[in-house]
Design a protein that fits this description.
Elements (H helix, E strand, L loop, with lengths): L1 H15 L4 E10 L5 E7 L2 E2 L5 E3 L4 E10 L7 H4 L5 E6 L3 E6 L10 E2 L14 E7 L3 E10 L1 H8 L1
């Protein structure tokens, strides 16, 4: 009788374990009429694996993760933290530099981390939850480049 009771209790606790799974993605959306190239830099060198091209009015998935637990983190901005700066090139000619947190670099074409248009700042991504239930969370983050970003870089 003890064995049967032990087995029943064991299966009861086993069924109570919630193995939560999450799926997260990050997208870069280009609402401008200009092509955008993204070049992440570390110690003066570009990371060739991190270069992305976004076509005019295009949308590009740059990250996906399936993890255990209830989280949508990280977003693409978090993944950019190891880099010194991110160079954004509009139409292969107009450059703007997005700086990381506590950067000491100053320049006319630089966007500081605190700016709401900085791609490496996670707060500048829109979080969307697609599905959430007792065992699954699915969502994505989007950073959007606008025509105004192009006009600001062109100044």
């Amino acid at each position: 009788m003890k064995i049967i009771l032990t087995v029943i209790v064991f299966f009861f606790f086993l069924s109570c374990i919630k193995d939560y799974k999450s799926n997260t993605r990050s997208y870069l959306k280009n609402e401008s009429k200009h092509s955008i190239r993204i070049y992440p830099y570390t110690m003066g060198s570009v990371d060739s694996f991190g270069i992305f091209l976004i076509k005019p009015l295009g949308n590009l998935q740059v990250f996906e993760s399936n993890v255990h637990g209830k989280t949508l983190s990280p977003d693409y901005g978090t993944l950019l933290k190891p880099y010194d700066s991110i160079v954004i090139l509009f139409d292969d000619s107009i450059k703007v530099i997005h700086l990381k947190f506590n950067s000491t670099i100053t320049c006319d074409e630089c966007i500081k981390f605190e700016n709401n248009r900085n791609i490496s700042n996670s707060e500048n991504y829109v979080k969307t939850i697609v599905e959430e239930n007792k065992k699954f969370l699915k969502g994505y983050f989007t950073y959007t480049f606008t025509e105004q970003d192009y006009l600001n870089a062109k100044k």
